[in-house]
Amino acid sequence: MWHGQTVSVVLPTYNEKDSIRECIEGFFATGVVDEVVVCNNNAVSGTSEEIAKTRAREVFEPRQGYGWSLRKALSAATGDLIVASEPDGTFEPNDIFKLLAYAQDFQVVFGSRTNSSLIWAGANMGLFLKWGNWAVAKYLEFLFNTHQFTDVGCTMRLLRREVLEAIQPYFTIGDSYFGPQMMMLVLWSGARSIEIPLNYYERVGESMVTGDFWKALKLGLQMIVLITSFRLKTWLGFGPRELHNVFHESRGPRPKPNQVRTGAGQPNP
Ligand SMILES: Nc1nc2c(ncn2[C@@H]2O[C@H](COP(=O)(O)OP(=O)(O)OP(=O)(O)O)[C@@H](O)[C@H]2O)c(=O)[nH]1
Ligand SMILES: [Mg+2]
Fold first, then answer.
1. Residue whose CB lies within 8 A of the most ligand 1 atoms, among 14, 90, 154, for a mutation test
2. Is the CB–ligand 1 distance for residue 61 below 6 Å?
């Protein structure tokens, strides 16, 4: 629980048998996590046994892909505050406190893995990945004229339930480039969001996507096409109209202490 709100952690899993247990236990050890939901996406054998040694709940997604897996885990979460992460040892469970601290003012808190002070030895964030993520993030930031983004591939992020429920019907991507789709739907909904720097560690086991230059390049290009086409659609009037600025309210009075602020800020162009 965090200030009277329940907290869910959701983890997609594919090839993280050797790190998933420690990751789940790390999240429970924070003392603020009420449930961990793991989505087994045809994961390597032995994964379910590792999950069974913990208090996490396992759900299954047969359609192969990061997007399918994360979407299933998100839909199975019951918390008021939902934190997505990865069980490959790259994220720091205690960083949940940074996300929660910002959840006081923001409905969605995105993480970034490109702050050089928090990229630890062995982390898969070399020049190409760091500046590639940064460039695509800046492209998205510019097209939406929104707050600072420095990463488009960071799974670790927090969403308040009302935002997740509003944007969920518009999820269409099942592949690895699902992350930016969620970012754009959040922006389009007018929810208050921010991006904050998170620790990024060396992965346990083999990277299945961004460890390979050509796969990473393809993923980056898919993200650019997705971002461009979404923005063009919204400019031409074909964006999801019912979602547009549903969370935006005109700037209200100063909130009371501990009152969650919703709406306000600049409306989405
Ligand atoms: N590669 C892959 N990952 C999946 C799949 N389904 C779920 N995932 C999850 O997606 C996340 C990303 O996969 P990783 O292998 O960590 O990818 P990576 O190369 O480290 O890329 P980043 O984490 O984006 O830097 C992991 O948490 C996986 O468990 C799938 O079908 N393929
Ligand atoms: Mg990873």
1. 14
2. no
Contacts of 170 (CB under 8 A, 6+ apart): 185, 240, 243
pLDDT tens per residue across span 71-84? 999 999 999 999 99
User: With the CA atoms of 111, 116, 119 and 121 taken in that order, what torsion angle do they form, in degrees rounded to the nearest 10?
Assistant: 180
- The ligand placed nearest to the CA atom of residue 87 is 1
69 lines ligand 1 (CB under 6 A): yes
- Distance CA(205)–CA(75), nearest Å, equals 27
| Closest-lying ligand 1 atom to the alpha carbon of residue 68 | 6
Q: Does ligand 1 lie within 6 Å of residue 148's CB atom?
A: no
DSSP letter (8 states) at residue 119: B
Predicted pLDDT at 263: 47
How remote is the C-alpha of 167 from its chain's centroid? 13
Question: In degrees, to the nearest 5, what angle opens at C-alpha 220 toward C-alphas 190 and 266?
Answer: 15
Q: Which atom of ligand 1 is nearest to the CA of 13?
A: 29
Q: pLDDT tens, 110-166?
A: 999 999 999 999 999 999 999 999 999 999 999 999 999 999 999 999 999 999 999
Predicted structure pTM score: 0.93
Tell me the pLDDT tens digit for each residue of 186-230.
999 999 999 999 999 999 998 878 888 999 999 999 999 999 999
Q: Please report, for the chain, the start and end positions of each structural domain, with discontinuous segments joined by +.
A: 7-243
Please state which CATH number belongs to domain 7-243: 3.90.550.10
DSSP 176: T
Average pLDDT over residues 157-183: 98
- Cα angle 114, 118, 124 (rounded to 5 degrees) comes to 60
For residue 143, report the distance from its CA to the centre of ligand 2, in Å. 27
